Amino acid sequence: MKLSMNTVKIVAAFLIVALFGTIHLIAPDFLPEIAGLLANGDIKETAEYIRGYGSMAVVFSFLLTLFVNALGFPPAIIFSTANTLIFGIVPGIALSVLAETVGVTISFILMRFFFRDAARKIIKKSRWLSSADKYSSKKGFMVMLVARMVPYLPSGLINAAGSLSSISLKDYFLASLIGKFPSTGIEAIIGHDAILEEEDPTRIIVVVIFAIILIAWAWRYEKKAAQS
Question: pTM surpassing 0.85?
């Protein structure tokens, strides 16, 4: 028997809720602790909480950063900065970028699965939205890349815009992965230096130069893709 798409979505939503329910049954204190941590938003407290997992701190931090970015809130800077305090600037930024990219990609897949069909119906009713949707399928990579490179821009807003557009999953993932290096780097370095009362503008300059190189590469990538 072939299931309708609505039925599949209901089953998928039930499985997501069941996953959280199972986690709560196995470890009743875990979700309340995480909720309190997210609500507080204290970077030092977050770092200490992650350190408490000892040898599993890297794995736990990856999963926590992933989860937060899939939700789209609170600001990712809390966790990217905490990661630099725990693991060092370069390893912390690398860990944060990978986790954030996986998180926003999961958000993209889920939001597109649940809401893209409804969004498509709305888009068809508007000439302007239809034009914007077509543009996103052709130029979505560059638009998403630039959006991801902007520090402090709400991740949840970008996730939603990307999932409801016609950008491909490949372009979304690649643009997010590349774009998050400079934005996450700038946010994490500024947060790290502010907490430890350090100041080294050289690191920011290196990140900015790296961002310029990435933009130049992305422009060539998109140009070649358009010609193929």
Answer: no
